[in-house]
Design brief:
Blueprint: H1 10-23, E1 26-35, E2 45-49, E3 54-56, H2 61-77, E4 81-86, E5 101-107, H3 112-123, E6 128-134, E7 137-143, E8 148-153, H4 155-167, E9 171-176, H5 179-187, E10 194-195, E11 211-216, H6 220-231, E12 237-240, H7 244-256, H8 261-264, E13 267-268, H9 280-300, E14 306-311, E15 328-329, E16 332-333, H10 334-339, E17 349-354, H11 359-367, E18 371-374, H12 382-394, E19 401-406, H13 414-423, E20 430-435, E21 438-446, H14 450-453, H15 462-468, E22 472-476, H16 488-500
Length: 501
Amino acid sequence: MATKSYLEHPEDVLDQWLTWSSQGAACLAVVTATEGGAVRAAGALMAISELGDVAGYVSGGCIDADVRLHALDCIESGQAKALRYGAGSPFKDLPLPCGGAIEIALLPSFEIDEARRCLARLRERLPARFEVSAGSRVLAFTYEPKLRLRIAGRGADAIALAEAAESCGIETQLALRDDEDVALAEARGLKVSARLGTPSSLPPMTDDAWTAFVLMFHDGDWEGALLRQALSGPAFYIGAVGSARTHQRRRAHLRELDLPEGQIERVRGPIGLVPSMRNASFLAISVLAEIIEAYAMKARTNFETTAVVMLAAGQARRFEHGDKLMAALNGKPLIDHALGSLSGERVARRLGVVGPGHDERQRLLEAAGWQVLENPHAVEGQGTSLAAAARHLQSVPGIDAMLVMLADMPNVPGDHLMALREAMEDGVEAVMTEVDGVLCPPALFSRSVFSDLAQLGGDQGARALFEKLSNTRTVALDAALAVDVDTVADLNALCLEHADG
């Protein structure tokens, strides 16, 4: 089956840019900002080789052609360049019909290690944070893994859905029952990844959090087995074809299998944005549109309903010289390193907790766009700061979780914070970092435990509460990345580490 001839996902564009960079010079174009309507979002990538080959796109038509010409100039000069198109642009002959504007950074000498790191995470099916230096600014974007579709079915509906998905470049795993269907699928250029033998011996499941599973046929024996298997995994979308009446019977059967009601609710039906499609190709487009909508929603909401809480109210009594959070690490105050961890993410609220007299900490927090909450009882211990943050957020609507970070942990990568959020599936009450078997911050708590956090006091931290909860997760972090600063010696060691890096 023919595949599309252009690339658009960051995984594909970075892969092509790295290939061209290994063969000669290449330029990476990055959309750094948009105003009003724009074809592509900030973070979109385009790679240009020294021969003028292009992978990806940043807008389309004349804009991309002009970006290519500027990129070739950048490759020749070795100098980065910033471009602006649309409102306020010097290129009057290249307006944007939408009336908005886009800004693009051309980077002929982008860091290969950063591209490789980002590409490796995407290939591991994990969200990746991507940092770009644009002039004096360091911008961060988050890329989600590609959508993957797993289909179990028979007949025209399953084959049509697989064809529609592959025509969009979506990785598709197709499992079929009947020999006739397998022959038809293969004749149409589709790869059949598995054969459905019996309900008691299903093919192994490899779903991840970016996989959609669709059951595309009716059969009571098969439905229960296939849906139970899918519900045991983390797929973001699980759907089954059929009418509303069929779906009610299906739900009743799943209850007979003793599946929890919360799990049964994950199964969508009837599926498709347009109801009652009687045509396999139209049904396929309708179902695929619903899956893409669910994927886009998942990608948008990584942190949009999460409050990020920075605990910066410690007394730093063990630090021998002044305020440790103001001490310099790699040319900027220690607290700034933690504040930048999710600087490029859309979050529900950024809340920094300080103690009385922490004027400099408050100034830096506010300069970075954080709301500041003063904890008058900070001297009594960290538990009081956690409680103060929880009480404050209880009154804020639209927040479903709080991510708790410490201002004296400068090495925690943004990828780890995203992994914590990924682990916060439906029903999970809290996710904590685990370092060599020990629980520690950063930690993520669902709104359901805000009231418990609000009762903490003194030096009572979140670990004791976490251990009392019934539905929790942990995410491992390398000890070198979990280091905190308590003494001048700790800071000096970090300074040496950063200098060596």
